[in-house]
Amino acid sequence: MAVSMTAMASTAEAKAEAPEAGIALEENDDLLFVGPVDEDFDLALASKEAETAQVMGPKHSSAPHLEMTREEAAKLAGERADRAFWKREIAYQVLNAVDAAQTIHFLDKGSAHEANPILGKYPSEKKIIGFKLAAAGAHLLGSLAFREFTDDETTEMFQVVSVGVQGIVVGWNMQFM
User: Fold this and answer.
1) Quick one: angle between helices 125-149 and 152-173, nearest 10?
2) What is the helix (H) or strand (E) element at residue 138, kind and residue range?
């Protein structure tokens, strides 16, 4: 049940309108407690002064109610998207470095060979590090290009897929430990 309430001029006016709107009222010395009868909503705390009355919405969050402009909301959304972008990029870079370390370790131990045909079966340590540094740079530049020239969903898809593939490679390598 959605109830929209505005500040009421007086306690008497609130009491008169409450039954028609399905609102429960309770009064103490300084405050008029106003709230819908439906249990899905918190009681709103409204001052008896109409100018200072506050109305709170449904209880979907325990966080305090914040008011913000469209510009502030857009800025906040942009900051969240930016943090998510960098978290995904860092995840890829960490997995890329782990893959390089695993490859070097397994080749030194002689327990496996490289499956990437670009590197060959037994590449040198320098070749592995060089290739992985190039892959790291290419991924970062690719992610930045996606972010600049496509929408957020496409950028996210590129990063999620590449993190997933790199994660599968690292997981696969674990069998040779």
Assistant:
1) 160
2) helix 125-149
